[in-house]
Amino acid sequence: MGTSDPLKEYRRKRDFEKTPEPAGGVESSGKQPIYVIQHHAATADHYDFRIEVGGVLKSWAVPKGPSTDPADKRLAVPTEDHPMSYANFEGTIPEGEYGGGTVMLWDRGTYRNLKEDEGVSMQEAYEQGRIEIWLDGEKLQGGYTLIRTGGKKKPSWLLIKKNDEEADRDMDITLEEPNSVLTNRNLDEIAGA
Ligand code: MN
User: Fold this and answer.
1) How far apart are CA 140 and CA 65, in angstroms?
2) How far is the CA of 119 from the centre of ligand 1 (A)?
3) Dihedral pair phi/psi, residue 101, rounded to 5°
């Protein structure tokens, strides 16, 4: 984990007196590594894709959300590491605070590192800019690839469904399964709570 605190940036951006988000800490889920996807109705609507690596949630903001169609290449903009406890967060961040808006826990599950057989750890895959994982989620299933594109200074990534038996070219999963996996609420119901 090194000597630097991977959650420093996360904490610097937030005032925990004002936001209901967890301050959290570096920890491991201790079993099969987890992933979550949060639908975040902020200034710009997006989905936050987060995977457990090294005791934190590596995170990307995906403007269009995930797709089950291998032909779709979804832009995934890296954001700061989040604490593991963020995986259970759903609620409203006050206006004026960082990320102000409503957060829904849209999907959750566990994943497998598909490059483990080649001796590539998740940390190495992340650093190399090519992650291949199998998701076992409540909504998403199957293989997904995250590929870093562009320069080191302003990296962006692409999130792409692998062409496997779980691929589905005929559905838009964000429209067909819009509600929370935690509470089954929609965004308006979470915002109004
Ligand atoms: Mn977000």
Assistant:
1) 12
2) 32
3) 145, -175
Provide the residues around ligand 1 (an ion) whose CB is within 5 A: 40, 48
Supply angle C-alpha 104, 107, 111, rounded to 5. Answer: 140
* pLDDT at residue 54 is higher than 60: yes
Taking the C-alpha atoms of residue 2 and residue 54, their distance in angstroms, rounded to an integer, is 10
Beta strands in 65-181 (DSSP E): 73-82, 91-93, 101-113, 130-137, 141-149, 156-161
Q: How many CB atoms lie within 10 A of CB 171?
A: 12
φ/ψ of 39, rounded to 5, equals -85, 120
Q: Is the pTM of this model over 0.85?
A: yes
Answer for the pair 19, 11: CB distance below 8 angstroms, yes or no: no
Nearest to 72 by CA among 150, 173, 169: 169
Residue 6 parent element (H or E): none
**Residue-wise pLDDT tens digits, 8-20:** 999 999 999 999 9
Distance 145 CA to ligand 1 centre (A): 20
Rounded CA separation 192/175 (Å): 21
